[in-house]
């Protein structure tokens, strides 16, 4: 029996569009409350487990779904094949194509499949109408017959066709029921729901949440969503009081009903991250952590690292003077995906296996977001332009993972304003709980296109040059610097929003980059192939009043491998026991601690193999203090370079050019680097009782991601 339960109120939360970023940065201040919330039941985990307390839930086992470029964990997701068909064909003059494709195993069995075809016409991917098709058996296998009608510009031409597909539910209703759960006093539930984009043309769906004591169910919340209207697209948020259920044991039931217009109609409704929270006392030591990666930012472009120009006055004052600066962070890689996965896992790229970004890391390798989520943190991420959105490994552990996409994939101009605006909205929504927020912006990545208001900076006669001569006549370097100044101003507004939410006193903010950028200092422009200081030396700065010492500068080299253990110690969470990184917290507290890390070797990788260049031999770098060793390949032979950065910061004098190989015994470790990686990988796998030597799985490349990475220069 189902009845209305009136005492339980549903409070609608913002959906994102109604809150303006710079309004959040106004002087209004929400003082931090002594009352906080912590997760008591994560109902997605409960449904996967069958009951709470049945062991740890691995987030790679949790279903997930994306709406408007934001991925969340969901109670149930439709079966989805990202690639049903991918081919290049000639289009007849009438524009009609008939194609056939086997049904992939993930979609079997299925009486009907919703397909979403796309065609690359004139260099751009064009979405074609969504269709519902049936499978037919041919010689014991199921095949799909795909009939397409392409628009005029494609007729008579060669085009690329990509088709992915979903299996719709049988019938027009769905229901998910949790195990019976005791409800503590003061509990409340937060959740989101929505309809996946392929079904936006299919009519309204009703969503209801009920609490059931045996057969007696009371409706807590009910909504009808019309995806044909813009207000019905995207995730919808609700917060429900559970005060009337305190002391009772109930099962929660999540129902949907599609107002189907015909038997062929379908819909894809989903429930995201329903979580029961309970009050928790707030301690001063209960810090939040924000990790900001400014992609492609080399250290020497910031005033705090010696830049003569005002590229980042806010960062210099807030993080440099008001926080801690690590003078030498060694990037793990010369490209975006490997470096970020090293930040997330504390192991080198040769261990986690991420090179081009398509690879899926082993299930026994945990990410920093997974560890923090398991410890009760709310976890969120806002990224840009595809490089960290291809593989589900980057999303592991994040309850919400949002990716901002440029309107034109061939001009990924960076969207730091939108990224930080979404971050401010996320902070407002999660201010009453402990959180880990990861932010990633491509704003200073090529192609450099600073806003018009910044295009006069760092040119001859501009006051921002502090009276120094203009930079070298390199327009890209000037535009790169202008992009950094714009990013600096946007970061100022984000920290104002953080303060306005009353979070400044209990949040630690970490700023860094994945790799730098060359401007022909060593013959090349860009990044990816070389590991000179312009690429390998990146910033690392921390800010957190009362938690991070002001004005502290740490001179000993550190690496991306150190980020995960550092974040976990700052958060007061036990480490994962994996990787070669070490927590840097002791360096923040005691200058004498630097001596223990001084002899440590740090490694970096470049020119990595990829699915386009699988046999490419990588370049490796090892740095010990100010000594730096490089090994690359030319004509099938190793080429060594050795530099003393203390005497030769520009890496102009190769100390092993005459001998052809380093004479320093320490440099022999560079030749054994791959062997050491294999040993570490084997040790981690054996500890988890997994097979050794299995290559990382790869995800299929969606066409929009392919175009994005080609525009960014990661694919030929």
Characteristic terms for this protein:
single chain, 38 strands, alpha+beta, 716 residues, Jelly Rolls, 6-stranded mixed sheet, Alkaline Phosphatase, subunit A, disordered C terminus, 11-stranded mixed sheet
Tell me, briefly, the overall form: globular
Question: For the residues shown, what is the average pLDDT?
Answer: 88
Superfamily (CATH H level) name of the largest domain: Alkaline Phosphatase, subunit A
How many individual domains?
3
> Which structural category fits the helices and strands?
alpha+beta
Architecture of the largest domain, CATH level 2? 3-Layer(aba) Sandwich
User: Which residues form runs of ≥5 with pLDDT under 50?
Assistant: 5-27, 466-473, 711-716
Number of helices: 15
- How many strand segments? 38
Strand content: 25-35%
CATH class of the largest domain: Alpha Beta
Helix content: 10-25%
For the CA atoms, what is the radius of gyration?
Answer: 27 Å
Explain what the structure shows.
It is globular and about 75 Å long. It has 15 helices and 38 strands. The protein is an alpha+beta fold and 716 residues long. Helix 7 (416-429) packs parallel to helix 8. Strand 29 (518-519) and strand 30 (525-526) form a beta hairpin. It has 3 domains: 2-24 and 37-77 and 171-280, GOLD domain (Jelly Rolls); 80-166, Sandwich (Immunoglobulin-like); 288-597, 3-Layer(aba) Sandwich (Alkaline Phosphatase, subunit A).
